Amino acid sequence: MNQASHHVVVVGAGFGGLEFTRALAGAPVRITMIDKRNHHLFQPLLYQVATTALATSEIAWPVRHLLRKRKDVTTLLANVVGVDRAGKRVLLDDGSSVAYDTLVLATGARHAYFGHDEWEPFAPGLKTLEDATTVRRRILLAFEQAELEADPVKRQALLTIAIVGGGPTGVELAGTIVELAHDTLHGEFRNIDTRETRVVLIEAGDRILANFAPKLSDYAGKALERLGVTVELGRAVTLCDAEGVVFGDKHLAAKT
Q1: pLDDT tens digits, residue range 122-162?
Q2: 3-class DSSP state of 172
Q3: 117-253: CATH homologous superfamily?
Q4: What pTM did the predictor assign?
Q5: 172 included as an active-site residue
Q6: Is 108 exposed, middle or buried (0-12, 13-18, 19+ CB in 10 A)?
Q7: Which CATH homologous superfamily contains domain 7-105?
């Protein structure tokens, strides 16, 4: 056991927390890694779990296994609810605490609804495995419900999927959902043609992938349109509910 007196507590076993811990190998410190989940998540591939291309186990690895050779590291499965800066303690939800000399907060981020948190029940984000499986379940159930629906208007709403946000995750998700509907699921239903699924990517800015070079944004937009994605630019979503979304002066009936 590492007997170093200086205690470093790292909250979060994501890329930042693990890389920081890796970099401290050989340092005269003892480390406690705390995360509310027992796995490290490779977030860039969450969209593939959400669209059935990958299983959850393929993008999540046990934190203890990743750190098994680091005898200077203790891993705790716990939920941090606060920090006592004066007492230099991390507070856990079971009422206990962990003392530290140096504290590193690497808890990551959650998706934002830009002041419209009431949208969350209708539009899950994509930051955790739970988010991905929720999105996957909703997409697949939409096809199942469309198979049972006799009303053509309601059926089209079930076969319409709206994605709000033209960043990397939105772009990847849009393209993969189209491939799921047009290729993977084609021929598996009798009352619907999954190729009639409409995927609409809505971006408030004037181009998708705004953090990339304009020519890459343009290329990605054209690639999505070739796949069959409808890209809507320049209008922010102002309403999101169980029936669909409103952007600009347009209402899009979409059950997902």
Answers
A1: 999 999 999 999 999 999 999 999 999 999 999 999 999 99
A2: helix
A3: FAD/NAD(P)-binding domain (3.50.50.60)
A4: 0.90
A5: yes
A6: middle
A7: FAD/NAD(P)-binding domain (3.50.50.60)
